[in-house]
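Lines hold sequence, tokenised fold; shown next:
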Amino acid sequence: MSLLIVTSGEFALHQTPPGHAECPERGDTMQAVADLWRERGAVVVEPAPATAGQLGRVHTAEHLAAMAATAGRAVMLDPDTFTSPRTWEIARLAAGAAVAGVDAVLDGRATTAAALVRPPGHHAEPARAMGFCLLNNVAVAAAHALERGVPRVAIVDFDVHHGNGTQEAFKADPRVLFVSTHQWPYYPGSGAADDAGVGDGEGFTVNVPIEAGATDADYDEVFRGLLMPLVAQFDPGIVLVSAGYDAHDLDPLGGMCMTAAGYANLMRQLTAAAAQCAGRRVVMVTEGGYHLPSLAASLNASLAVMAGEPAAGREDRPPAAGGSRERGVAAAARARRIQSRYWRGL
């Protein structure tokens, strides 16, 4: 098994107000999943905090100073985003876990790596915390891969919310392909299909907004028919996955109908694409997912694929997922009309 998991029990020490969806128990759930995979032979390691230099490749000095000033305090950054006395330390640890995953696959210590972290990161913009996120973990990891000499990095975000912070970090950078599937319309309100990047980065942002109610089949339609051929054409040296599991049909925040088996299917397609063009190098970084049993089931299904094992995607009850591809076909068609300006054969 060439799967490495980077995580820490300390991720549960980032405290949020009672009843907050991004609760400390999410960290406990990730630890239980990591413990299961350790028993099955995966290597599980503790991360080190991201350095100032690593964070500064993505975030402004002013933002980092503002976040550092919250250390030791409970602060409301916006109506959704809070710190507790140890949050600044834990947020740097989460970004460091994503960096460690990149180092592991680039150094050949693992083929695939998973950073099981909280707080999540993909809403954090270079100069702003928002949407539960203080630091953009996957963006820091991508910038680290570029610094290490990877010529092109693909980031695929299947969280139910648009990865606005990741897009903002790389919207003008042709070395980074950013792909986001997300419920539309929904928080944070960005990610329209015609938002394709700016300047030299035009054409390297791919947004696929999908109508609420989308199923495993809809997501399969988007990935198989549009996104995986596009990733292959980009020919990245590494594939990073912003793995949000809040499009699951049991999730309290999203309005989608995905299942653990559906997530396994997406991860199977991503690892197959990486096998063709990225030396099999895949690094998964957790984002959302707020129904704890389905988070655990979806993580286990994804990790099984990354470890090269069958992923049945079993869950506690049959999911409400039908076989219609109507939403996926419509979403792919909208995105294809925009992206065909930049990519061949779509």
User: Anything to note?
Assistant: Residues 123 and 131 are 6 Å apart (CA to CA). Residues 311-322 have pLDDT under 50 and may be disordered. The domain at 3-339 is CATH 3.40.800.20 (Arginase; Chain A). The first strand starts at residue 3 and ends at 6.
